[in-house]
């Protein structure tokens, strides 16, 4: 459960940072959006891989 809380805080941090960046540089919102999407995608992939790895370890212990 702690991992999910860390992920939630990371997502909130990225959203707040992106909002601050858009406020400072309104003309660059397209680039900021692209960067946020890339970071979010990478975080999602890492999270999925760690969940899959954890699930496989659990199956190994059960058997």
Structure keywords:
mainly alpha; 63 residues
Topology:
Layout: H1 2-24, H2 29-62
Helix pairs in contact: 1-2
Account of the protein in words:
The protein is an all-alpha fold. The protein is built from two helices and no strands. The protein has one domain. Helix content is 90%, strand content 0%. Helix 1 packs antiparallel against helix 2. The model has no long low-confidence stretch (mean pLDDT 78).
Write down the domain tally.
1
**Strand segment count:** 0
The helix content is over 70%
The share of residues in extended strands comes to under 5%
Task: Work out the oligomeric state of the chains in this entry.
Answer: single chain
Distance between the termini: 24 Å
Low-confidence stretches: none
* Mean pLDDT metric: 78
> Tell me, what's the shape?
elongated
Q: What is the radius of gyration computed over CA atoms, rounded to a whole number of angstroms?
A: 16 Å
> Helix count, per DSSP?
2
SSE order: HH
Tell me about the largest β-sheet. Answer: none
**Structural class of the helices, strands and pairings?**
mainly alpha
Summarize the structure.
With 63 residues, the chain is mainly α. The protein has helices spanning 2-24, 29-62. 0% of the residues are buried.
